[in-house]
Write a structure and sequence with these properties.
The structure is a homodimer. Chain A is mainly beta. Chain A contains three helices and 18 strands. Chain A is globular.
């Protein structure tokens, strides 16, 4: 099918292929997504972000009055995805760097609704991830590397089990998914969290379906919400969160919304040659 | 340092970032190589192939009369590498597609000397990998997943231990390096080989320092040399070799040289933005 313009970017090493497609002309089949995301035979990424005007995307046309651009996010396996805290920061950086939006407060349409993002002319990008909730169950056990911990169940759009540990090595090599009891019907991401100082934590994360990853935006948010409760901190509360792929900052606002701030880096641009 | 032109390509999913640098103007530090090969924060590849005229490269100027172009190959960790059977096919495809060489028989300078490559206007590329040798030891044992096999020690530039198995699953998940006795002082690549039919084998490979990989050009050659001896085949002998990343063809010539044939695909081209 010839060649296709792309940009590659990442946020704390959660990486994406961006495809500029303002008019919605691209037929982005699962096979094309898989080919693009293949780390050896393609460009390689955790997912694809198609950059399309909301008015030109069936999934977003209802949001077009509020948000000019729609983040059409696909997982590396070709499936549709709703939202990604690292992806939307990279997406916003692209819009500003390309001159498609002015720096400032942007509203971006996603399959999880319109998201509010703050982006400057350079540097970090902040996204309002919405409120965190505690859907339960109240008693959660996580088992890995022959150890068992109690976990806090937090939802930030998707479900998380947050475990406080003394040392991130306690979780072992995390080659397999930790066992979680009770079983979450749709699976659960597991964060292992250690204190690094006042309002400063570090974490490792095992994402359902992906294994251990370099970063998870919702996981960082869930970890901070759990840590703020453990620490008895009044809201608004801001924490620095070190993830394997870099550093994020998370603020739980007084209204319960969680803001995720961190780097959004465009790495390369060019044309991909598709057979 | 601004932006840098690149092409990404692969041969049976052994992938490379090619950097056109005919005049040898590029200061390719280990840090730059690591940044380019980083699969999340960079473009991602198994290695970098700098495309430089032999006359402009200190390592190749002595070969300039015989070979116009030097394949300056670096491993993903930034270290120098001598040769790569999959890499040189991709390199040759780039030279021809860019019009830097005519299709036909090319001589390409490498740190392992001048290599002869056959490349057409499209399709597979063949490289003469030189002679295979049997440096010993004669009695080699390989252990993985609780099983032990006898192996054949074959060198194709680098050392290999070739194990014939009934089923590729016998080797288990290969998360750790197989144990090899006696110990090879510089390490050894291990191939697990199964018959798929007449002069047709399939293999899995564990490469020293890299773990299980999608393909290994010298490993495919070593496996065919071992299989041809087991099968009592007269030379020249040609085998089809299925590797996890695709299909190769290997011919052991009557003069003992081993020819490796397979795909060489250019995937994308563009500019990488370096901080």
């Amino acid at each position: 099918m010839g060649s296709l313009a792309f940009v590659k970017g990442h946020g704390t090493e959660n990486d994406f292929v961006l495809l500029p497609d303002p008019d919605g002309a691209l037929d982005l089949t699962p096979a094309v997504v898989r080919a693009l995301c293949d780390r050896r035979a393609g460009i390689g990424a955790d997912g694809v972000l198609r950059v399309v005007r909301s008015e030109n995307a069936a999934d977003a046309v209802a949001m077009a009055a509020e948000a000019t651009w729609f983040m059409d996010y696909r997982n590396a396996d070709g499936s549709l995805a709703e939202m990604c805290g690292n992806g939307i920061r990279v997406y916003a950086r692209f819009l500003v760097d390309e001159g498609l939006e002015q720096p400032g407060v942007l509203r971006i349409a996603t399959r999880d609704g319109v998201k509010v993002v703050r982006v400057g002319t350079a540097g970090d990008v902040t996204v309002d991830m919405g409120p965190a909730t505690f859907p339960g169950p109240d008693e959660v056990k996580v088992r890995a590397s022959g150890r068992t911990w109690s976990a806090t169940s937090v939802a930030v759009g998707n479900p998380h089990a947050v475990v406080m540990v003394d040392d991130l090595d306690e979780a072992g090599r995390l080659r397999d998914a930790p066992e979680v009891e009770p079983v979450f019907p749709d699976g659960v991401n597991v964060e292992f969290v250690v204190s690094r100082g006042e309002r400063h934590i570090a974490l490792r994360v095992h994402e359902r379906g992906s294994g251990e990853t370099r970063s998870c935006g919702t996981g960082a948010c869930a970890a901070v919400v759990a840590a703020a409760r453990r620490d008895g901190v009044a809201l608004p509360a801001s924490y620095v969160v070190d993830v394997p792929g870099g550093r994020l900052e998370v603020t739980e606002r007084a209204d319960g919304h969680v803001e995720l701030t961190g780097p959004a880096v465009l790495v390369a641009r060019g044309d991909v040659l598709l057979a």
